[in-house]
Sequence to fold (722 residues):
Amino acid sequence: LLYRLQSKHFKKLIMEIKLKTVPLAGYSDKLSGRPGDRLNFMVSCEHRSDFTAELFRSISADPNPQGLGVVEQSCDEFFTKKSFLSRKQSFHPGSYAISEQPLKITADDKISFSVLIYPTLQCANSQSIIEFGQFSLTLNTEGQVVFVCDAGSVMSSNAVSLRRWQRVEAQITKLGQISISLGSLDGSDTFEPTLKQLNRELDLSQNASVVIAGQLNGDAIINCFNGKIEQPEIYVGSNSLASWDFSRNMSSMTVPGSGCPNLKLINAPTRAVTGALWDASEMNWQHKPEHYASIAFHEDDIYDFNWEPDFSFVIPPNMPSGIYIMRISCGDDYDAMPFFVCPEKDKPQAKVCVLVSTFTYVIYGNHARPDYDDTWLEKIADWNAYPHNPAQFQNYGLSTYNNHSDGSGVCHASHKRPLFNLRPGYLTFGQANCSGLRHFQADSHLISWLHAKGIEYEIITDEELHNEGVSAIQSYKALLTGSHPEYHTNETLEALTQYRDQGGALHYLGGNGFYWRIARHSEEESLLEIRRAEDGLRAWASEPGEYYNGFDGAYGGLWRRNGRPPQQLVGVGFTAQGTFNGMPYKRVCFDPDFDWVFDGIEDEIIGDFGFSGNGAAGFELDRVDPKLDPGHKITILAQSFATDDHFILVPEEQLTHLTNLSGGPESDVKRADMIYFETPTGGRVFSVGSITFCGSLPWNNFDNPVSRLLLNVLSNSLGEPI
Fold:
């Protein structure tokens, strides 16, 4: 008991140190909606005074003072500025499993516990394996397993080995004998059980919840386990009273119990991971589920903060489709929560649709960049940019571009938490000599261009595209993507392909798009999964045998490795990445049939300027590859070859240090291709092949060759001058 109390107290102190919080933060339960939909806003405010909420429409999210700066329009007609009672809401990182109902036992002889563990991290605090009322199995700071009950405790004589399967067995008798053993599964390490006599008769009755991989401390979860757990089982006498097979119901957040309550998984631990039986004879968990009978838990998993709503907003019928910001403030602190208003279903009012890449935004949500430096804070202050960075507040949950504390990759993402990098004015690259923006903020360059040119548009996000299919976009004459539509489900790609092949005009205005395959959880739709399998430019690599999604069983990784390269949809695909620098395009098409593209543009050099990388073609580049497209009659309009030595071919293009898949010099394929093609069914595709293209649109107050070129292309798609 003393051990348990001390470990809980120590863990609580560690949590208080780790859980650095911002004074005011919030999030919404939905990122998008249509008229009539309700959005709930969850807020934590550490001030004593009330906080206020005010609604704005977002025009520009770039804080660069050399450009427009952050531009927002007040929307008092839709939401009157209001005050709300401040309260601090807590959150508890760490994944675990808990029984849906208490487990009741009466033991006349003994109780035993058995479990397989694969620990991955030795911590400065204890890690709970199983907790059941007065009984617990815990990994201590020295790596030994401790069996604790109210009457006393016993410790294994040996320590665990990290990243290796081991069996833990513990037993306690009514007469007070307590024992524990820890050994390898292959028998290479054999140790005698540690025994202790407590010298008094014990009451082994218990009626409590079973918790796997964590300990409950009031409303908080503490002492979370890092690693994989398999086959937990509780015996009364010689009979198995409770056991859980983690290979069952794999794609669910519920694990069925065998003669006992089901387990509910909290904070989305990772399933479809290799277990103790895995021998590399099968790579697909669906074929040998018994080889995948484990769950990987992490102390820093976080899916849903589970904050209570502070206020709601119902989208009114007369609210124009667009990007909106719910700003909350108290004293000198503020937060700004974007959401995306789509038009009434099946009643579009505009001819142009902007596809907002919310799946990509969430996958990158709270990306703590390894190159973050506190020197960025001076620039952030000078520009009045968004003040908080995920690198400073990693306890808010990291992105799938980060690693867990045990070094494994983060493969789950959710928007049900404050996402610092999904805020107007957020700087991705604080050291850049340009705006240094990506994702939501970079996409606002396109939004501000549409407003500057007076082009009516409506918003559709990945959410609607996934749920509704092509019907969400089929009425629009032209569809524009943002700068980086990287992550897609099968449903979103199908919808875009159908839109194009039904005669729609698809404008891909970014780079490294349609690259990774993701899955949505069937029970928790805001939860996304990415497996970084075998290839691609990866922040981390999935472990062997773990390339198949747990959520839907599909093979994960690149769409290219799933037989659906980006070239099939938009004619170009990811070929090279470099530093956040841009280069200009050079016109290469002088066919009179395409003079309309370059109408009003005299120079062959286009885009040697911009707020993203100082050039229209940069950072991540896409090119044509005839081997990967299905025979599109592509016209290359302009090209930009990488002149920066820091640009590299993506791994899927590289064969050896001397050869690549193109068969030619590496310098020839490190390029961006701006292209145009038409489908036999009347569809049209314009692709720019660069992630920094949109950053050039606002240059010189939107009066520049890149802006003119896009205006020409969009006018042609709409069949009318703009």
In short: The mean pLDDT is 95.
